[in-house]
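User: Teach me something about this protein's shape.
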Amino acid sequence: MKRIRIKQVDAFTTVPFGGNPAGVVTDAAGLTEREMRAIAREMNLSETAFVTPSSVADFRVRFFTPLKEIGLAGHPTIATMHALVEEGRIPLQEGVTTVTQELSVGVLPVEIHVTDGAVRQIVMTQKRPEFLRTYPHADWARAFGVSPEDLDTRYPVQTVSTGNPQLMALVRNLRVLEKMKPDFDLMCQLYEGADFFSIHVFCLGGYSPEADVHARHFAPMAGVAEDPVTGSASGGMGAYLVRYGLVDRLRLVAEQGHIIGRPGTIFIEVVKEGEELASVKVGGQAVTVMTGEMSF
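Assistant: First, the predicted structure itself:
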């Protein structure tokens, strides 16, 4: 019988039971891919992360939803680094400590910002934004359970990838996000033959005066009806907002999860090289809510 230690960490929050919960196995050496998939199904969270040794980075990290593996994930990265710091596996220095994680999409850095010995923010770098296919507004209005006029048709419904392709859809205001009645069957139908993994819907503004944007995220095709707070999609959203001139700055504050009772805050920085979008950074905090052992 195998025994592993596993944590549940709420990411993009400092308050237990807020933000987005992720499972984290900080020592997954010796686990097979089949076992990782089974553990992710058992945890039944939007993602579970598995940390193993790497020959090219500080850590190798794999992410699984209940149904599939994904190459890059935001909130599990924040949760994983929080858990590794908690276990003393990342020696911290005042200011910024940088570690690297080997993912299926490549090796990417993570910055851990420390003040007076305490972690203030964990920031992941995502890949150069790619702007991919566009889709009809009317189809997605039906899938969201709103009218076509509720989407801002001046801007495309478009797949954006910063390591994980996700569909971006801008709606007119927070009221539209609140009244949405997602049709998950229709979403899965529209997903057939598409180039995205999941769906990110957002509006300008939020509940807090500091919020630049508020979002909801859906991934029924990956076994996640609604994801509370989504780091990877927030990177793509930040790139979308900057590219289409919807914001006039490169550092943004995003809200997500409030509508489903798991409020979270994400800090986004879009990095430019000249006029080109070079990468996106996404940051937040985390709190461990459970530590236990799994036997199988």
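Now, about its shape. The chain has two domains: 3-125+284-295, 130-282. The longest strand covers residues 106-115. If you'd like, I can walk through any region in more detail.
User: That's plenty for now, thanks!
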